[in-house]
Amino acid sequence: MAEHAATTDNNIRQVAISADGVVKTFFNAEGEEFRVLDGVTFDIYRGETLVVMGGSGCGKSTLLNCLIGEYAVDGGHIRFKTKGMTEPTDLCSMDEAEMNRLRMRFGILFQSGALFNSMTVGENISLPLIEHSYVDPSIIDIVVTLKLQQVKMLPHRDKMPSQLSGGQKKRAGLARATALDPEILFYDEPSAGLDPVTSAAIDELMMDLSKKLEVTSVVVTHEMDSAFRIADRMVMLEKGRVLKIGPRSEFEVIRDADPATLSGVDEQLMHQFLNGYSDGPLTDAEGLSEFEKLINADSRA
Amino acid sequence: MTDAPSNTTQSGGGNVPGKLYNVVAGAGRASRSAAGQVGDVVRYTGGMSYLLGDTISWTLRSLFSRNVKFGGRAILVQMFRVGVKSIPIIAIVEVFIGVILALQLAPTLDTYGQRQRVADVVGIAIVRELGPLLTAIVLSGFAGASIAAEIGSMVESEEVKALRAHALNPIRFLVVPRFLATSLMIVVLTVFSDYIGVLGGFLTAVYILDVPPVLYMNLTQAALTTTDFLTGLVKAGVFGGVIAMIACYEGLRVSGGPAGVGRATTSTVVKSIVAIIGIDAVFTAAFYALGI
After folding, report:
1. What is the ipTM, given to two decimal places?
2. Is A182 left (phi over 0), alpha (psi -120 to 50) or beta?
């Protein structure tokens, strides 16, 4: 595991989450093993926005599910060190009660918003507060108002999720994710399915919340415009491994480089991905990615 | 399973090695399929048992622990959905059952000159057996399918994942209210369906079979005991729990998008009906053995 405090620019940076050699495998109906995460190791520092990116099937959604405790890892460790913790706590050794205590320290914005369809927007946001606190309903009402104001959704408080647009659902989902004042926010494809203007507005909102609430943000996305807008650091996954992790500026250099100057397949691969080119090491002569080939093989089987 | 060697699979009788191979291969395939099905049944039963255990545990904790909220409002919402909305269809089914029973029995009882005894038979059949059974079958299609579809859709739209992410246990939040509401409401609905079924028999007997109304009521009252009612209600409560468990289990394990939700609803109805009739047979045998 990496050090839980790293020194940069004379500032002590506390590690909030540490993934150490994380392995996750799945089995298909024939019993074949697919190692989706193969020794993923990186740290996420407190207060930063880390963008996890990679092509379809690279393991980024699986990684997110492992980080939020949805999937149990098959190898390695995921350690959290939230405020008030003297020592980092290993996710793998937590029981359900401990996991739930940790879950109350983080919020998640799901790809679809994942609002509870039987409840109004306001009820969606108040639910975690009602369930995890014994405060007066009038206080909860005030908190819900504040959270909705933060995401500019107050006029939609009494609407049902089915009455909202995609962008509004994400805003409402974000308000719910921040209901318990989390220390860490996870975003699963926050720009997916949104037009560029709405996507940019959601990005602005995420950056605004990160500053105001001083949260650590982990964003899984393959929308490059969005990734370069919001990231402090970036991590690129390929075939379940970390290809590169570093500050956004390092990825900008690779993105903007002349392909002839790039050394090695990894940099060429990242250059292709970051620019969204169809030709390159990520795709074969027929223009198929590794993931597409896997899907095709699976459907043939 | 690999294909048989070509020299042993020639068609045209008399090729003993080929026939033997086919018999062995067929037996192998059958045993593998049977083993797979047994494995599925064991996995399903294990999963259901785990869900039932967890549901009972959360129900007790919500009743007796101050740290777990009871969720009374959610239970009331489900009681309304399961109970109130299914009243009309249960009424229609039960009144027809009462009519059918009376008309079917009348000719046989006529041969003994005991037409009025239709009251006894309809009463006992409805209260002990058909009231709880048909209420449960209607509910498995009405409430069970709806519960499976609702929870399945929640799984597909990541709502269940969102519950877990907010440290809200899906079993406490989704399964417990549906389990309690279905188990309680089916008992209430069974009382209702008992009366409606007997009413169907009464109307048929009085207006078609010319049985005097007072005689019909007296015979029904004399034929039925409190035990008859209670055994029916106990069975109904168990049926309700089984429907809720199957529906929630099928809903929670949905995968594959809308098609998966469709499979879960169909599966819920089929499995619920089979389970209800099986459990009813066990209850009937047990009551018979105990002389109840």
Report:
1. 0.81
2. beta
